[in-house]
Amino acid sequence: MANETNVTWHEHQVSRAHREELNGHKGCVIWFTGLSGSGKSTIANTLDHKLHQYGIHSTVLDGDNVRHGLNASRAMLKDTHGDAFGERFGLAFSAIDREENIRRIGAVAQLFAEAGLIVLTAFISPYRLDRDRVRGTLDDREFIEVYVDTPIETCEQRDPKGLYKKARAGEIKGFTGIDDPYEAPASPELVLYAGEKTTAALAAAVIAYLRSHNIIRIG
Q1: Can you list the pairs that 171-176 forms with residues at least 24 positions away whose Cβ atoms lie under 8 Å?
Q2: Tens digits of residue pLDDT in 181-216
Q3: Nearest CA to 146 among 115, 122, 176?
Q4: Are 126 and 175 in contact, with CB atoms under 8 Å apart?
Q5: Percent of the chain with pLDDT over 70
Q6: For the chain, what is the largest distance between any 2 Cα atoms, rounded to a whole number of angstroms?
Q7: Measured at the alpha carbon of residue 163, what is the angle toward residues 191 and 80, in degrees to the nearest 5?
Q8: Is the pLDDT confidence value at 1 over 60?
Q9: How many Å apart are CA 90 and CA 82, to the nearest integer?
Q10: Span between the terminal Cα atoms of the chain, in Å
Q11: What would the 3-class secondary structure string for the chain be?
């Protein structure tokens, strides 16, 4: 407890405003949420590519990629660091582990945004409370929630990783949309209908939002 009271926030000599001025745009977090297979990662990566072409500083935090490192599973950490380490620090897919997964991602995204980057996150993030908590750590208009609204039937038809098939067969428990709930955003900044439009058109819609809110200035 004594150590905790000695932790102090240190202000940096280079401010966020200075970093944003250097970058030529504001920092923010674009939080893509939706069912597995809805198209979140594809849209985020397409958007990242387009922003890069415009000279915008952006980065993608993808659910699967983060689970390989920062939020690795218990099994993965056991293989590389031993059983005790894996049990202590690894995350699984229970409700409480998903909550911690999103909390950590939110903290990392906030750091990137404060450095003046546009952060694109692609996570199912099924629980509304967890997403709202991340929103609460950021200033007004810095958290842009983008609901990728794709019917579960379409997601199951795509099923790029075969997860729905395994969930239907009972091989995966607590799978979002099958035997665990997905709580759609109540008031997202954007809704993208990935079953109706091309990925390029969806990415363009996000760019239009960023321009209209003076986060980026292009064209």
Answers
A1: 174/93, 174/94, 174/95, 175/36, 176/35, 176/36, 176/124, 176/126
A2: 999 999 999 999 998 899 999 999 999 999 999 999
A3: 122
A4: no
A5: 87
A6: 56
A7: 110
A8: no
A9: 11
A10: 53
A11: CHHHHCCCCCCCCCCHHHHHHHHCCCCEEEEEECCCCCCHHHHHHHHHHHHHHCCCCEEEEEHHHHCCCCCCCHHHHHHHHCHHHHHHHCCCCCHHHHHHHHHHHHHHHHHHHHCCCEEEEECCCCCHHHHHHHHHCCCCCCEEEEEECCCHHHHHHHCCCCHHHHHHCCCCCCCECCCECCCCCCCCCEEECCCCCCHHHHHHHHHHHHHHCCCCCCC
**Which tokens hold the place of 35?**
């069912």
- Active site amino acids: 125
